[in-house]
Amino acid sequence: MLGPVILAASRSDKMRRFVSAAPGTKQVVARFIAGETVDQVVPIVQDAVDKGLEVTLDVVGEDITTREQAYAARDAYLELIEHLKALGLGTRAEMSIKLSMFGQALDGGHELALANVRPVVEAAAAIGTTVTLDAEDHTTLDSMFAIHEELRKDFPQTGCVIQAYLFRTEADARRLAAAGSRVRLVKGAYKEPAEVAYQVKGEIDKAYVRVLRILMEGDGYPMIGSHDPRLISVGQELARRAGRKLDEYEFQMLYGIRSEEHLRLAAEGHRMRVYTAYGTDWYGYFMRRLAEKPANLLFFARSILTKG
User: Fold this and answer.
1) Who's near 7: CB < 8 A, 6+ residues apart?
2) Whether the Cβ atoms of residue 133 and residue 95 lie closer than 8 Å to each other
3) What is the reported pLDDT for 35?
4) Average pLDDT over the chain, rounded to an integer
5) With contact defined as beta carbons under 8 Å apart, do 208 and 187 qualify?
6) The predicted structure's pLDDT at residue 31
7) I need a surface site. Which of 160, 179, 281, 286 has the fewest CB within 10 A?
8) What's the distance, Cα to Cα, between the start and end of the chain in Å?
9) Which of 92, 184, 288, 289 is catalytic?
10) Residue among 292, 287, 289, 273 nearest 96 (CA)
């Protein structure tokens, strides 16, 4: 299984330096990262919207070691919101935030992350959009869910992410599948121990379907985060059985992966949102994309061995 090895490498400074210096890295990273600056990513957002898609934007970067870095991350999102406001894209583009980037792992990190994310959520609401809190490794989730609950008191549209491979997720889904909630379901992309998570793809897929059924039968707004054709079909069928209209759930896929499928689903009338990451600190995000799908790794391996 290469996935766990790659996920371990995502935490390695030595591997970070090697991958960053490799001749083919830049062209491969460009497949998954929409740009390094907000000025580079905004035209990509506009193009997606023009094609009938919606987006969620992630300013990549998780290795925060100082409060100053956490404040800079907050300010990067506030700058993004100003650009979306100026172009009138607020209703078609939301933000995805990893609380680790907002200082969650620092001393007093729970309070710091909440203080940093609140003005971003407030600014997003002011332009007609919202924020979804991304799920990270299992040790961070209680803090993330507590911050999510606190934010929803004033901004009930604030979303969160749950990960099918964790044993706890079915219970989390039942709690979250309430009126007004927005919940993105993904398989999970962190290296988790067998004590807390399924390790076999077949078991993860079964768990995904069980959790998605809970969300579809609940009163919230499910967001199906998957590129798997079978799970996409299952999602459509579960939505039909639950009597959901096309605007009562959505699909989400990553920028650079199955782009034609994005357009196909949108053409069929589905809400299709593209998870679009940008920024200079791309390494951890990029390595998880490689770990998720062997084809991504083969594509990278071929490119990394080329010259220039």
Assistant:
1) 189, 190, 191, 287, 288, 291
2) no
3) 86
4) 88
5) yes
6) 76
7) 179
8) 30
9) 184
10) 273
Q: Mean pLDDT throughout 145-173?
A: 98
Nearest one of 190, 248, 251, 200 to 220, comparing CA atoms: 248
pTM as predicted: 0.86
Write down the H helix ranges in 201-293: 201-217, 229-241, 259-267, 283-292
| 255 and 274 Cβ atoms separated by less than 8 Å | yes
Is 50 exceeded by the pLDDT of residue 110? yes
Q: Is the pLDDT of residue 40 over 50?
A: yes
Residue 159: which H helix or E strand, with range? strand 159-163
298, 304, 307, 308 alpha-carbon torsion, rounded to 10°: 120
247 is catalytic: no
Q: What is the mean pLDDT of residues 63-67?
A: 89
Rounded CA-CA distance 208/163 in Å is 8
Residue 154 among the catalytic residues: no
Cα-Cα-Cα-Cα torsion 212, 273, 134, 198, nearest 10 degrees, comes to 40
Give the pair of three-digit tokens for residue 136.
């990270």
d(CA 186, CA 190): 11
Q: Which phi and psi angles does 53 have, rounded to 5°?
A: -100, 165
Distances (CA, A) of 124 to 89, 241, 279: 11, 33, 19
Nearest to 179 by CA among 206, 141, 152: 152
Of 94, 89, 98, give the one whose Cα is nearest residue 140: 98
The one catalytic residue among 134, 152, 172, 205: 134
In DSSP terms, 94 is beta-bridged to 56
Question: Could you give the CA distance from residue 303 to residue 107 in angstroms, rounded to a whole number?
Answer: 40
